[in-house]
Amino acid sequence: MESKYDDDEEEVKSGDYGDSKGGDEDSEDEEAAVEREFKALLNTPLKGELAVSKDPMAQRIAEGFTINWMNMRDAENGEMMWESGEWGEKMWRKELKARIPADILSCRAVSREINFSSIEKMESFKLEQRIFFQGVCIEEWFFDFGFVIPGSTNSWQQIIEAAEESEMMTAEALSGNITIETSFYDGDYFIAKSLVRVFYV
Amino acid sequence: MGLLTLLRKLKRNDREARLLVLGLDNSGKTTILKKLSEEDITHIMPTQGFNIKSLMQNEFKLNVWDIGGQKSIRPYWRNYFDQTDALIYVIDSADRRRMEETGVELGQLLEEDKLAGIPLLIFANKQDLLNALAAKDISKGLNLHTIRDRMWNIQACSAKTGEGLQEGMEWVVEKIDNTNAGAGEEEKAA
């Protein structure tokens, strides 16, 4: 367990979430912080960011938090298009690469599923998922799980209808330029973030 | 077949609905949801927490919450009652030994303020098994006819073959569609 925080991978950048969130700062500061964060988000180059909180309470939750696997399916027939395999804790220390058959772009509906475990109880667990195209956020999803049972393993499957074909970019244009960033929070405390870069093959 | 097809038929837009799926362990909650998405059901493990399916279509979001049914997890069910639009209760029709236990759990759920008045669908699952009780026998055994404070329905089904699943889900979605189309007279305790 300990090694999780020691083996600083190259890809990992520690964010300052623990410092900027959770405190009772006045709203102007908070607004400025949000604004800063938003601008930083807009300027995020090619890949998103991987980070681990510095807050001790959030760190305890993070220590006991594991993303077990992720997958993507054709939601019409349940067919598996991509599986992450068992990455365990590395899932939120390294950028994953998903090589997905280009056929998925013609699927009418696509499913993305993420499976995670938590040793600690959480009262207001939530997730933010952002899809980046060449570093620009083109889609975002928020989900409130609320309560998380201590020692539980849980999954969230999201099924999304595809955009009309005319709006669709080609596999060549998208391949390697799309990243899916999934961040987890307990209330305002940032816990962990995973990053998947999508290649269409 | 499937939840997506159902969702496409819905009239409303710009709304969110939440279905809560409960029942004893091994009743087949997760399998039902997987089968509805045409997914492989051969390697399903006991749920040690929750499984959520979020379906999004035309601004309408349907969130289906499947919570583990083991005895140690049941005390946590109440953490997931808020804002629920319909309850789906799954029964293993072949588990005669635990029919009373499942009846007690259901009875407790029906007394919860946060679940008051919402439509209830009971899936009498595992009809593919030879010793499965018929839906009408379960209905009788659990005194379902005494439920008068909500719309309810019992649907015989087999998560294994898929039989009855679509019918059951159609009933649920139709009921929440109607409930929400009417005036929002139903106040949910916070």
UniProtKB/TrEMBL annotation, chain A:
Domain GMP phosphodiesterase delta subunit, first and last residues per copy: 60-200
Query: Spans of biased composition, class Acidic residues?
Result: 1-11
One Pfam family, short name: GMP_PDE_delta
One cellular component term from this protein's GO annotations in UniProt:
cytoplasm
Task: Spell out the Basic and acidic residues composition-biased ranges.
Answer: 12-24
Q: Where is this region: Disordered?
A: 1-33
The record's similarity note reads: Belongs to the PDE6D/unc-119 family.
Protein name stated in the entry: GMP phosphodiesterase delta subunit domain-containing protein
Organism of origin is Triparma strigata
From TrEMBL, chain B:
Q: Quick one: which residues bind Mg(2+)?
A: T30, T47
Q: From the UniProt record, which GO molecular function terms apply? A: GTP binding; GTPase activity; metal ion binding
**Which locations, inside or outside the cell, does it occupy?**
Golgi apparatus
Q: What is the top-level taxon of the source organism?
A: Eukaryota
The record's keywords, sorted A to Z, are: Golgi apparatus, GTP-binding, Lipoprotein, Magnesium, Metal-binding, Myristate, Nucleotide-binding, Protein transport, Transport
Residues that, per the record, bind GTP:
G23, L24, D25, N26, S27, G28, K29, T30, G69, N125, K126, Q127, D128
Q: Which Pfam families match?
A: Arf
Q: Which GO terms of the cellular component aspect does the record hold?
A: Golgi apparatus
Known InterPro entries for this protein? ARL2/3, P-loop_NTPase, Small_GTP-bd, Small_GTPase_ARF/SAR
Report any one BP term from Gene Ontology.
protein transport
Q: Which PANTHER family match?
A: ADP-RIBOSYLATION FACTOR-LIKE PROTEIN 2-RELATED (PTHR45697)
Annotated family: Belongs to the small GTPase superfamily. Arf family.
What NCBIfam families does the database record attribute to this sequence?
small_GTP (TIGR00231)
UniProt name for this protein: ADP-ribosylation factor-like protein 3
Q: Which organism is it from?
A: Triparma strigata
